[in-house]
Write a structure and sequence with these properties.
It is globular, with a radius of gyration of 14 Å. Helix 1 (6-19) runs antiparallel to helix 3 and helix 3 packs across helix 4. It has helices at 6-19, 28-37, 40-67, 75-88. The chain is mainly alpha-helical. The chain has one domain (6-91).
């Protein structure tokens, strides 16, 4: 689900465009290789973004499997990613980007 369902593909397409990648990640190994190719300065920001994406997709999946809740629109997944980024931003250290 984390790479191939319709909602995940939308989130990965937006992430691909933001990160200026040529293709979508196809597996965890593929994703790890992409992260490792990035300059070290951008790695922490990238890991932060990918953590928010993965957590959002996981919660959407759990809602579907355990609560029979289907998201009303694929856009909900993007808003969840942004929401997690805003909430989790305060947990990041000053060394990641120089500010909080």
């Amino acid at each position: 689900m984390i790479f191939f369902c319709a909602i995940a593909r939308l989130v990965w397409c937006v992430s691909r465009d933001v990160l200026e990648w040529n293709i979508l990640p196809q597996s965890v190994d593929d994703l790890r290789e992409r992260v490792m190719r990035e300059p070290i300065k951008q790695t922490m920001n990238l890991i932060f973004l990918l953590g928010c994406v993965a957590w959002s997709l996981w919660l959407i999946r759990n809602d579907l499997v355990f609560n029979n809740i289907v998201v009303s629109s694929p856009d909900v997944s993007l808003y969840r990613v942004i929401s997690f980024m805003q909430k989790w931003k305060m947990f990041r250290g000053r060394g990641d980007n120089g500010s909080r």
